[in-house]
Amino acid sequence: MTEPVVVDRVVRLSPLVRRLTQNNPGPFTGPGTNTHLIGTTEIIILDPGEDRDDGHHDHLVAAVGDARVTAIVPSHGHPDHWTLAQRLADTLRAPIRFFGTHPEFRVDQPIAADEILEAAGVRLHAFLTPGHTADHLCFHLAQERALFPGDMVMAWSTSIIAPPEGDLRHYLASLERLLAIPDLAVLYPAHGVAIDRPYDRMNELLRHRHQRTRQALDALAAGPSRLDAMVRRIYADVDPRLHPAAAQSLLAHLIALEADGRVEREGHQAEDLDQATWRLSNNVPA
Length: 286
Description:
Layout lengths: L9 E3 L4 E5 L12 E6 L2 E5 L9 H9 L3 E6 L5 H4 L2 H8 L4 E2 L10 E2 L5 E4 L2 E7 L8 E5 L4 E3 L19 H12 L6 E2 L10 H24 L3 E2 H8 L8 H17 L3 E4 L10 E4 L6
Parallel strand pairs: 4-5, 6-7, 11-12
Antiparallel strand pairs: 1-2, 2-3, 3-4, 8-9, 9-10, 10-11, 13-15, 14-15
Helix pairs in contact: 4-5, 5-7, 6-7
């Protein structure tokens, strides 16, 4: 189940699941975007990937073969997951399905929260899991004890939570919802290898987020600070190229703490929170 990621090649993960990883590696995509093909004679394509001149479209069409595609589904609205959707849908004559609408691509059939997507021999339960984005969906394939967590849970990295579309409190609630799904054996994330200890990894991510919250409070206990100074302190062991993304995740923690009445900011409106000075509020226990 944890076969290594190989780009541009179909990897069989289970009787119902195959993975084709696009050759679009990067600091936020890892080895590339994983497109999952779920089903046999009828297929649901999850996370079609980016529209690039890299052969991913043709590899997917070849992998589908004579099967019928019942849906092409981006897990959420970040471009490394959806920009190939329309061209692929036109080629395969398949509908694009998505939670709600998106300003940049056509949605043929919206997906409702808790809807069951079906193909021959496949029942895929859609869970609305906001946090990474407001439109993020995860998909449960109960018959194989498998979950497709999109960008919410990955083995190689934590999920970026970038306000305003990212919301830490929503992300934590979504993680708790996934943890409540019984009898999971494997996670198939949208980037990186499969995860064969699902609950351990999800609990690890919860602990990590609580640790970052504690670190933010500890940093402010030394006195008021701006976001950039807090990032240099808290993420001192992280590649500086990733500090802008780390700043967005830390900002999500500060916004959540502000909503809980534990920190305050001095001046600055919502559109430039990265320039605000943050300090502990009087409500933080000693």
